[in-house]
Amino acid sequence: MNNHARHKSDSDKTREELLAELQALRVEVSCLRQNHHITQVHQAEIALQQQFEQQRLVIKMQERIQKSLLLNDILNTTVEEVRQFLQTDRVIIFEFNQNCNGTVVVESVAPQWQSILDKQIHDSCFGANVETFKQGSVAASDIYTANINPCHLELLANFQVRANLVVPILQGDNLWGLLIAHHCTAPRLWQNTEIELLQQLATQVGIAIQQSNLFQQVQIDLIERKRTENVLRQREEQLKQAKAELEQRVALRTAELTVKEKILSDFLNAAAAAGIGIGIHDHHKRFLAVNHALADINGAAINEHLGKTIYDVLPSMLASNVDSLFDQVITTGQPILNLEVQGETASQPGIPRDWLINFFPTFLEDGSVSGLGTVVFEITERKRAENLLYQRQQEFIALVENAPDIIARFDKDLRYLYINPAVEKELGISAQAIIGTIYREEIKIVESDISIETELRKTFATGKERCLEYRYRSPQGLKYYQARYVPEFGRDGSVESVLVVTQDVTAIKNIQEALRHSEQEFRSLSESSPVGIFRANANGEYTYTNPRYHNICNCTFEETLGNGWLNLLHPEDKASAIAKWTNAVSEHKHAKSEIRYVRKDGSVRYCQVQAAPVFDSHEKLLGHVGTLEDITESRAIAIMKNEFISIVSHELRTPLTSLRGSLELLKSGIYDKKPEKGKRMLQVAADSAARLVRLVSDILDLERLESGKYELTKERCNAAIIMQQSVELMRGDAEQNNITLNVTPLEVEVYAACDAIVQTITNLLSNAVKFSEPGATVWVDAKLQGEYVLFSVKDTGRGIPPDKLETIFGQFQQVDASDSRQKGGTGLGLAICRSIIQQHGCQIWAESTLGEGSTFYFTLSLAKET
Amino acid sequence: MAPKRVLVIDDEELIQEVIQASLEDIVGWEVLLASSGTEGLTVAASQSPDVILLDVSMPIMDGIQTFKKLQDDSATQTIPVIFLTAKVQPSDKAIFSQLGVVGVIAKPFDPMTLNKEVSEILGWKS
Q: DSSP 3-state assignment of A149?
């Protein structure tokens, strides 16, 4: 069976079909062996074997193709197997590229023959053979005998080809390449089976190539897919990242917007708190935002603004005006600034307010106008301040223009920038004539070392205020001036100008001089004043005390200052003194009181304090001035005087009472018929008169002695005579009381007023007799004691208590008040004695023991030898 | 007017004599005499006089102390007391008025009108 005649190509058969056919052929051969000639059989067997090998090769290639995707491996195996199978010199696979050129991509060549692997073959004859190749195989047993195109022949000859067999490798209808077998050794007749085999293998190669292409395509697809997947994954990651970034940006943007909204809200509120109204409008002039201040000015709530136009919140007339301004801003893109408007707010109707209004455009990023804003400043206070400032400026100008002081300003060149009209009065030059000129020494200052120009330059140089006084000899006489140089600074801190205020202080100077004199006089008076003087400020705090004050209170100047003087007060007087002083200070009144001060040694001084308020010319209290008079002694004297008068009054009135009473009774005649009674009344009168005489006499003696007007005339006296004379005078009284007088005369001369000493001794004897019991003795003694004579009168009477030993020498200071009645004394005897002895510059005292008696002593100076 | 009993407390004997003569010999009043405050208290309590003429300046117990004791004693506290005194300073008078004495007669007094002064102080009708 001709293989070509078979219905189905071997390449299209499965392996099982081929094996089945092979088995059938073997059966056929067996039959032939039995039925045919042996040669034929042998030839058939050879053909059969060749066919079998051919089929095996095709199957092998099929299996390799099925098992392997390695195209090169398949192709190399194919060319190698074919060259072996065909027993030829070279088998190649040629792949076409464009323009019918191509490359030898696979080769199996016998070692002795030239390799043409990878050769780029440019065969111009190929183009004509393409269609031929597509139709089937081309076989040439000998290229030199075959009808081959010369150009192709040359190519084959170059490759040492003698016979060749070419079968096409197709990919569908396209010619992919060629499977070529070269026989170089010699011409070769290609068998049909060989041609068929090569065609079958070319078909398998086409399948392998297709499979490889498919595989490559799959690989490419896979790679592409993987790449796509990676790209997709990357895209996804990028998307995720982008999403995250976007979300983050959105969050950030949201946060930023929130912050900005907060900032805007805070800004609007802060502006509102500062009285600044703010409104923001869109392109249609609708409110996007508005703060409380502007809402209040417009008279509507914030939410009544938002999304609305000004026509919705403002009166139509006003809205129309504002709207035209809005249009102007939006149209021109230019702001309208500093419009001053006056009106009232809804929250404070009736109170006029002033505002400064600004409209400004808002822009988009492309520069187009997106809307506009309104900023309204509350300038009510500023307007008031401006008005006030203007008013003050006018006042200031009026003040300066009419000021009596010369007020001038100079620039750095000492040019008069200004000078007020007061200069005309002083210098006789008008202000206008001076302004603009350079300063020159117009004023004739007495002090040669003072120069106004120098002072001005110093003020410019130092930037410090200067003040000086100088004298000016004017036609009216010497005048005093006080000038203040005040630097005026520019924005850079340098002195731009100097203000000079020159004041005529002549009157003040004269007053100060007079005051200084007055103060000096006051000081002199105060320092030598016999009364304490103090000065206090308006708060009642002491600012000055004079030396006498310190002397009275035994304190220092510092201790009296402020409220220190309160510490000097007697505790019992402190509260009332503070109350009176506080009242005097607060009520601006005079104060007068008697206050006790306690000195450091504990002694108490009674003081008369007087204070008078001092006012300035505006009746404002400046403080108090006062005096402190030490009345301790005068007060004691006054008390004593009062007591003395009271006692004298009593002592005089007592005998007068009985004297007057008895005489009045006698005068009435009621005792005319009762002579005894009348006689008794006469005796009462006589006794009373005698007592009165003694009393008056003693009082007069004492007054004369203590007044200092009567000076005792002292002379040389014999003490013995004085003693005896005194005793003799008292002997009658003594005997009447049964008292013995014992005298021991001392023959010595004393320097004394004899009669006064006699009176002294008789007074002492009188007391001794009075207070001695009948039968007692009274001793009168004297003895020398240095330059003195010590006299003594001693009794044995009742004695004197120790606490009375000193006081009995006082006026009306008897041991017992009844003594004057019972003993007939006046209570002045011992006082007279003390006064007499003290006038002699000597001493008198008493010593006594109660119940045993008393001794009175006194001394007298011995008369000096002549 | 019935005769009155008058207690005179005074340490001055001459004055006692004059007062006694004045009241007894002119209007016939009974005059009781005491030379000290102590004695006066005794007499006042025992004799219940219609009025006491009391000297102020007396030794040991002066007129003021005597007056207070008279006021403290229920037997004598109702007896009107007139101070008969030579202490006539304004300060003295102020002290007397605070004590509650019914009257003060200054020394020297007129013996011829003493009884009238006493009667007038006490509201006695002659």
A: coil
